[in-house]
Amino acid sequence: MSPSIDIDPLALAIAPPLNETPQEREAREHAEAEATRISNEIDEQIRKERDRERKKRRPVKLLLLGQSESGKTATLKNFQLIYARREWLEERNAWRPVVFFNLVRNVNNILDLLNREMTSQHARRDTISSSDESSEDSQLPPLRFREKHRLLKLRLGPLKRVQTDLERRLGSTAVEPHTTSVTTAAPFEEGLNRPALQEFSINSSNGWKSALEKIKGMRHPRPDETEGSLRKVKDVDDEIAEVIAGCKDDIKAIWEDSTVRELLNRSKVRLEDTAGFFLNDVDRIAATNYQPSDDDVVRARLRTLGVQEYKFIFENGRTAGQEWRLYDVGGTRSTRAAWYPYFDDVSCFDEKLAEDRRVNRLEDSYLLWRSICSCKLLARTQIILFLNKCDLLQAKLQRGVRIRDSVPSFGDRRNDLSTATRYFQQHFREILKQYSPVQRSFFVHLTSVIDTRSTAATLGTVEESILRDHLRRADLM
Ligand SMILES: Nc1nc2c(ncn2[C@@H]2O[C@H](COP(=O)(O)OP(=O)(O)OP(=O)(O)O)[C@@H](O)[C@H]2O)c(=O)[nH]1
Ligand SMILES: [Mg+2]
Question: Which residues does the annotation say bind Mg(2+) (predicted)?
Answer without folding.
Answer: 304
